[in-house]
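Handout, page 2. Input:
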Amino acid sequence: MKIAIQTGLKTLEELLKNKGYDVVPFRESGLGVKISIVNDIDEAYEEIDPVTFYGPEGDEMVLLNATQLSQEDILRYVEKYTTKPQRVSLQNGLEVIKEKLLAKGYDVVAYGEDGKNVKVTVINNVEGAYEEIDPVSFFGEGENEMVVLDASKLTEDQIMKYVEKYTV
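Output:
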């Protein structure tokens, strides 16, 4: 996978190269770049999120803003977007969320079924069928921690951001 990186991130560039990534200068990257890492933010980029997706759905390029992320965070995101997709459990009836997750490369399984390696579960607690939960709830600890998102209390964009955050 080709990664474009702006000048001034030499330590990060060396770390990525040592891990076997094809790292090219940002201004000379050309086609085929799946991840770009920027640190010299100008007016065109000043309001971007730490992680932003550009391009048509399913073939997006990930832009990582190094001014808002630690080196460790950047390495985790690079690994996330270059390895097997993360698993998300989804309750029936959340088809729009499911389509968005699949388009971003997540492995989506039905809620209550194969829960192995699931870090995030999205439910729709419209009628209060589940115990009183917050929009974002945490269960378990350490490697066994799972995040449960209540789709009845969050927007689709919020759900996608939380999934992104907690599957890294």
